[in-house]
Amino acid sequence: MHDLDLFHLPRNRLQEADLALASGLREMLDREVAAKRLELKEDFEGLLEPALARMLCEMGLQRMMWPEELGGEGHELHLAPYTVAAALEQVGRADVGLAVAASGTLSLQALLVGGEGCEVLRERLSSLFLDTSRPLLVSFVLPVFGEEGDGPGWGGRRLQVEAERTGEGWRLRGSGVRPLPGGLDAGLFAALCAVRGEDEPALVIFPGDAPGLRKGPELKKTGLAAARSAEMNLEDLMVPEDACAGRGAAALGRLLSWYRLGLTAAASGALLAAYEIIAEWGDNRVIKGQGRIFKNNPLTAAVMGEAAQETAVVRLLTYDLAEMLSELEKRGEAGSERLEAYSLLVAHQAYAAGERTLHRIMELMASAGYAKEWQLERYWRDLKTVQCHLGCVELARHALARWFFGSEGL
Amino acid sequence: MGRMRTMDDFSRPLEYLTPLGETVGEIIRAWVEREVIPWRRGFDEDYLEHRLIEPPMRKLLGEYGIQRILFPEDLGGWGLGHSDHLCVAAFHMFEEIARADSGMAVAFGVVFWPLVLICCEPHVNRRLCEEFAPMFTGTADAVFSCMAMTEPQGGADIENIELIRGSTIRTTAVLEGDEWVINGHKLWPTNTGGEADLMAVVCTTNPGSSDLDDIAIIFVPGDAPGVTQGPPYEKAGMAADKNGDIWFENVRVPSWYRALGPGDDAKYYGEVVALGNMGSIAFAVGVMLDIYERLRDFVERKRYRGLPLKENDAVAGVLADYAATLEAVRILGYQCARMCDRQDLYGPRWGREVVAKARAHRSFAVDRALEAIGRVMNLMECYGADRDWDVEKHWRDIKMVQLWLGGKQLNQMEVARWFFECQTL
Question: Of A228, A354, B30, B425, which sits most exposed with the smallest number of CB within 10 A?
Answer without folding.
Answer: B30
